[in-house]
Amino acid sequence: MERGPGKVTMTHRLRLALASTLVALLGLGTVAPPVAADATTDAATAWLAARQEPDGGFEVADFAPFETPDVILAIAAGAQSGTPWSTGEALAAVQALDANGAAAGGTPLDWADEYLTANPPTAGIAAKFIVLVAGPLGLDPAAFDPSGNGAVDLVAAMDAGKLPDGSYSLPAINDTLYALLAHDVIGRDAPTDTLAYLRGAQQANGGWSYDGAPEGTDTDVDTTARAVQALVASGVPTGDGTVAAALKYLADLHQASGAWQFFGSDDTNSTAMAAMAIHGAGWRLHSSCWRTSSSSGAAGPYTNPVAWLRSQQVTSGEPADLGRFLSQNDVFSEVPNTSATSQAVQALLRSWLPLSPAPLARTEDFDDVPACAWYSQAVAWMAENGITRFAGGTFGPKSGITNGQLSLLLWNLFDQPGPFTDHPYTNVAANAAYNDALDWLLDAGLINDGTTFPSKRNVNRARVLNLLWQLAGSPAGAPDLAIADVSDTAPFADAVDWAIEHGIAQLLPDGTFRPRQKVTRAQAALMMFRLASTQPAWGEVALPSTVEF
Fold this sequence. Notes:
mainly alpha, 1% strand
């Protein structure tokens, strides 16, 4: 794929840099400062510390390594005194938890060392230890040996478990998600085949299932939230069709209580994971803006997920319970495991996860574009890139878009190419703003030759997508979708299949596309924004400078 003239490749990642020896991990910077530790998180980390077992670990549920890596990260996050992230503070806090005192072998790192030595890690386990332990504590992931008794190469173990389809350690897709996050931690670009695998595993509802099956509706919030973190950490823009669909999924499942649910009940783990994903996508949780911007159907009372999380902490009763976070899983064992409390601390502090958060959401100054509408980010992107310009401070999001207006927007989207031979349309005024755009489209064979051009006719959904598809290089390979109102022989059928596959447009709730429905300026803006943000939607063409990836 070629890059257009003058285009500077930029991604949204603010990654840890790793020295060539993979020893010295640098501190992570974020777009917004993390939340400082307070009485809530202090009480939670104190409760976690009291759960330490004689071997130094925290495997209360006896399902290693389910709990200890997350506890290590929670303790490390609670020890941070400022920004950027201090691996020194993190390491000191974890090493201070010594269940054996003067005797050897009692810290969480001793447990980790012993576990990994006795149990050669799979790719997913290795990636998890890179993300939750080695990275935040500044330990060498290629020679993990905190006890000095023989190093384990977590990076090599992760790499060895990569499968031909780009996934890692199936059947759980969580292993693949940790592998993508681990690539970010060690300063690597995300493998393109792994990103393709992850995109292909997304279900039509925007979520992911635990096993990564793309069919059906058996999705869960935790896996979907981790997938958002992995995509954003891999440099995928939040306007990308895959990320946007996942955020819509999370928005539509957000409860009025402020929580997300697991098996029909408000759940601490799911809420913590979703909160970290939304923060990682550039949104701030105190406002409902992320929800209304992500889904046009999101409505009703809004409660900050952070407020709901705080409400789940035990603050009275038995001293041994004080500080922990409630979980619906508590009923399954006599002693609550540490998972809910660890992930609640991570979500409340948001200082390590999510890795490489996206930039804050855009803003713009059109008087008739709300700050938090489903199309606001698209319009702000257009204004930022000079695709649309102020006309009396208004954008006209609900107005129909004409052939002439669409031509101009597309010309601006593609960096105003030209000059080309003058078009022959006698009905187009010599001073029309879109004259150069018509010259370009005619030269490209995207509009018909003749003496007239229907510049004032409103365009429909099929027309917009067909033009976008052709300008993106008419990429082939999209599956033929059975859409009731789109015939396989329609001239725009391939464009519609392509647009639905990549999230540039969506089917309506009844499963139809309505190709002849007129397009508003807001809808056209969103379609162009999705294309500019979704790298796999492009064929072999020179990319304009307006793309987001």
